[in-house]
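pls design
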């Protein structure tokens, strides 16, 4: 094995080890993304799912206000897979007083 292949193998092995450790941890963990812990978005789920979503709780609004919305909106194509409709997300942002909505988020449609 030449030096480049050895380095690549070692990096891959280290990555596998880290991922395995994360999976085997006793407590569920979340990797921070877009300035928030992805698990914290669950606080907003009741306000964006179902036919009659509930009003957002303060904890949900705090998560949204701290989040990097430009970053989050890059994943908007995955919303329907999670049973979340983009129009409900726009309503949620408004209810939480988020007034600066990035262009990537303004195009949210059903």
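designed seq:
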């Amino acid at each position: 094995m030449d030096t480049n292949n050895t380095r690549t193998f070692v990096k891959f092995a280290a990555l596998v080890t880290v991922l395995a450790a994360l999976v085997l941890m006793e407590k569920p963990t979340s990797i921070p993304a877009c300035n928030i812990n992805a698990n914290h978005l669950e606080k907003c789920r009741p306000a964006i799912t179902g036919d009659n979503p509930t009003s957002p709780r303060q904890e949900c609004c705090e998560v949204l206000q701290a989040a990097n919305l430009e970053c989050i909106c890059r994943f908007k194509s995955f919303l329907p897979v999670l049973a979340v409709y983009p129009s409900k997300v726009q309503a949620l942002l408004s209810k939480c007083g988020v007034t600066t909505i990035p262009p990537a988020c303004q195009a949210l449609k059903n």
